[in-house]
């Protein structure tokens, strides 16, 4: 549906939300591709004789590449622009996702995961920068929540697709089919995306809304200046402490359900769908909460931190997962609250760079935060595998740690940035 001004040109109303829809689609594909391995872990571990430690190193290979490349990817997005840079990233990760189908041992899977990490590292820097260019500040948390919910939808779609493909056509088909979806996104992005000033379908009134914060475009900041802002360090700390918790849910939850509740590949779908559907709700609710407070006159500082505190308190539900005993659905319920709270936390944490830093530092800051989160994940993944082998798969202490990280992270963020406000 298009509108028409007196000039005779036709515009697409609310075009910025169509752009957000493309970001949502990319994030969905991103998480479908990375979730396939976790879903197939019980089958692959049996067929290829993996230990938990082997699996931990395979996961760590993804984290290593994801972290090492992300700061450079952020600069690449700043240099190439969102249209070309994002396209290259999705092509790389789609090819890498399909390459898993040709792996036959732990080392080859690790190599494929490393390549996947290189491509997928660009998703969030590119998406966050796109939001910063296409949305006024008061709508950014909601827009981030919308596109970030694609990660949950991807993790939701994967349990529907992967078991069917693996059971009917073999596990290799799951990697090929899911990896190929990325090329559909590439076609849509190249056809539809332009920056606001260049988009022929953007209504001038909507462009005025997008520019309503009066932000000035400045030359790209060198890293020494990006790192001189306390908000940069706050974002990096938040990612370092809480990203590994999400990786734990993403990569080890299917194994937890298989080990503790004896769910095989054909029965994992419903519990995982419930968990990741809850994550979708949490992502939208987290963005809605802070955006609503901003619209009611709250300061950015109060709105963001209040929303993050609510999420940090709610995520403590994970502490009690180890006490669920034989009740599958109690465990699923507690994990669902925890992952929903994580995603609400995450969408507000991701707005911190665009809230407190100039736009020409956003992608670089997100890249640095991704580096910190991935370094932490790279260190934590083998440790989880080693602990599960050592303790004979005692998951309870891991959930306790997962439930406490957010309050710690929020306390440090507040100490670093007592008052969150735009950088001068």
List the helices and strands and how they pair.
Blueprint: E1 3-4, E2 10-11, H1 15-48, H2 52-80, H3 82-99, H4 106-120, H5 123-134, H6 137-169, H7 171-192, H8 204-210, H9 223-226, H10 230-261, H11 269-295, H12 300-314, H13 328-356, H14 362-390, H15 396-416
Helix pairs in contact: 1-3, 1-5, 1-6, 1-7, 1-10, 2-3, 2-4, 2-14, 3-4, 3-5, 3-7, 5-6, 5-14, 6-7, 6-11, 6-13, 10-13, 10-14, 10-15, 11-12, 11-13, 12-13, 12-15
Describe the structure.
This protein is mostly helical and 424 residues long. The chain has one domain (13-416): Growth Hormone, Chain: A. The chain is 77% helix and 1% strand. It contains 15 helices and 2 strands. It has a two-stranded antiparallel ribbon with strand order 1-2.
How is the biggest beta sheet arranged? 2 strands, antiparallel
CATH superfamily: MFS general substrate transporter like domains
Radius of gyration: 21 Å
Q: What is the residue-averaged pLDDT?
A: 87
Q: From the 3D coordinates, which CATH architecture would you assign? A: Up-down Bundle
The CATH class, by name, is Mainly Alpha
Helix count equals: 15
In brief, what are we looking at here?
By secondary structure, the protein is mainly α. It has 15 helices and two strands.
Key features?
single chain, 424 residues, Growth Hormone, Chain: A, two-stranded antiparallel ribbon
